[in-house]
Amino acid sequence: MRKFTAVLLCLLMTGSILAACGGGNNSKNNASGNAGSSNNPASASTNSGGDASASTDDIASRKVTIKIHYPTPDLTEMRAQEDDKIKRFQEVYPNVEIVKDDWQYSVNEIGIKMASNEAPTFYNTFATEAKFLIEKGWVADITDLYNNWEFKDQMNPVLQDQFIVDGKVYGIAQNGYITSTVVNKKLLDAKGVAVPPLDWTWDDMYNAAKGVAEPKKGIAGIAPMGKGNEAGWNWTNFLYEAGGDIEKVEGGKVTQTFNSDAAVKALDFYKKLKWEANAIPQDWALGWGDAIAAFKEGRAAMVIAGAADIIEPALNQGGMKPEDVLTYPMPAAEAGGKHTGILGGNYLVINPNATKDEQEMAFRYITFDYFSDKGLEATEAIIKDRQKDGKYYVPQLIDYYKEDSEFGQKAKAIYDNYDNVYKYDPNILALLDGKPEAQYGTQDYYGTMSNVIQEAFSKKGTDSKKQIEEAANTVQTKFFDAVKAE
């Protein structure tokens, strides 16, 4: 698996037009965007697929209904942002009826949704799912729409390329992340624990977690995710930091590679946090939302996820202050090592069962605010509204566009104008080392490793080497052997 550190340093951004919230093993719901910078259908259509001169007036006059990906009820601010976008989109395309659908992608539900024809016209998914969805035929080939889009060359290739397979385009990148650790400085200060250096190690993480933890008061030094596939996802960052990997692909076969000393080392570190430091929550079976909640409520000093996904609720729901919420890269296994974190992203893909008109309108909706001054104005309005309400806007680290593009510079200028936009320490960028998620059987691997982690947290003295060997055998025989890799 190749590293993207050098490229990422050119692309990393302290901003995101689309504020993301995390879920599962990646980020969660996104306020999506769509490409037109004009208020009349003819000019806006040049940002969509197809031949503008031949088909624009036709599709803009025909009645089309699309069922859109919509944020869940708990994400009130993101729903308001999406409602504003719907209003603006229908001013340009009054012929389009929009149906809201707040179903969120699940690997266990997508097949049923497709079989019953209940899937939205477009839906959200994450970086690991590209080849899985393509193989199942559950995602549309949008190559022609994408190639006829005027902004395709300004897309961030680190993100977008993960949904380009064999030269064909199957999705549009929304934003991305490199898994980070977010630290509650206030909890450290209260216990007199020194704030670790940015160039930190596993030992630094261990010492800080142990020093902060107060089990009798329900305060954990760190809250690693302990249930669901997200538990395996969280732990895999440590596998990477120890120099390990998940799989290799040769001759059309996928072979596990995590039966390794690196995996044993990473699992042993988790056990130290649990059994030696007593630093993880007593009720350690935390899903993604549980871990985020523990942080925002001051019950955990450290949580691992996409940074914005932790910071957003901590500031706007937990009442924390920016100066007390510190963003760190993942710790290096040893001094001088790499701060490797999983590189993931959020994508919008189009339902292959939709008609051609529905697919084109879905593409136009998805990209409606991309590279658009209207989109920037909408984002600035959100920042201002949050400022009035005493709330913060938290950008993502990596966005759909190239940082050095004209649009990227415009976005940065807006963020710099407001004191309620969360600012990342620029020194972090030089330390981040993003490694893409495996493309075959990733969720199956995560789920298997989640079982390993649960056993390690529930039974003292388990044999890490034996656990890893058994997990590797399960993943290989039950999942990887069934994959026909391209």
Automatic annotation (TrEMBL):
| Signal peptide annotation | 1-19
Query: Which residue ranges are recorded for the region named Disordered?
Result: 31-56
Query: Which residue stretches does the UniProt record annotate as biased composition, category Low complexity?
Result: 31-50
Cited PROSITE patterns: PROKAR_LIPOPROTEIN
Instruction: Spell out the Gene3D superfamilies in the cross-references.
Output: Periplasmic binding protein-like II
Alphabetized, the UniProt keywords read: Signal
Q: Source organism's superkingdom?
A: Bacteria
* Protein name from the UniProt record: ABC transporter substrate-binding protein
Please name the source species: Paenibacillus physcomitrellae
